[in-house]
Amino acid sequence: MGAEEEKTNTCGTICLKYLLFTFNFIFWLAGGAVAAVGVWTLVDKSEYISLLASSAYSASAYVLILAGVVVVATGVLGCCATIKEHRGFLIVYFVLLLCIFLLEITAGVLAYVYYQECFPLCYQLSDELRVNLKDTMVNKYNQTGQEHVTDAVDKLHQDLKCCGSINYTDWRDGAWKKLAGDRVVPDSCCKTRSNRCGLRDHPSNIYNVEGGCIGKLEEFLLQHLQILGGVGIGLAFIQLVGMIFTCCLYQSLKEDPY
């Protein structure tokens, strides 16, 4: 009877090890993906995000990278604890999973709350953003020593298919106009970009969207807040499975006689 019970326990332990190892591998891949998204955000999106006065978006990218690194490290620890059947490592792994779980739940809830509260406040926030973005665009675009701003504005126009902070009429003022010659908007505002295509600001020739580039940016950030909140809460509940597996494996392992 004792032999059969020991055999059953051994089979259960092996199954739990494989389940937990599989979970850790998926968890490790998820951490790498999260870190990759953070790096991609900084590399691909930071140019036109840097035009804004706020650094919140860049900060969120760094948080993603840090979270991804922590998840990868935790996944490696979980794999080692599973393979070695080390109860002490399993405890540490469980605590780390619990901490990440609580952080993801908190981040998801905060993202949701911020999203809900943003709508009555976004018009107040946009006024300042619109003024700052317009001033940066029309006074630094195509100016000596401001090549990074010029590249960022061109990328903003082309990526988000917009023209100007509020609309294309922003380009009628500022330092840019003095150097523009007979162009009324930058060439990057054109739907089909070519040299000196900015001679006409007719909607058939340029991007003319309601709310301008700042509206597109706000829409972009709000959509990502929704995604981040949903992913954070979703991954947090998936981690519950990993914590359950960890507890079961911990209980199934025999106490160290020493």
Explain what you see.
This protein has 6 helices and no strands. It is mostly helical and 258 residues long. The longest helix is centred in the middle third of the chain and has 54 residues, at 87-140. The protein starts with a helix and ends in a 6-residue tail after the last helix.
Describe what is shown at a glance.
Helices cover 74% and strands 0% of the residues. It is mostly helical and 258 residues long.
Please count the beta strands (DSSP E, at least 2 residues each): 0
Give the radius of gyration.
26 Å
Shape: rod-shaped
The level of helicity is over 70%
* Spatial gap, N to C terminus: 26 Å
Q: How much of the residues is beta strand, in percent?
A: under 5%
The ordered string of helix (H) and strand (E) elements is HHHHHH
Q: How many helices?
A: 6
Which structural category do the helix and sheet elements fall into? mainly alpha
Mean of residue pLDDT values: 76
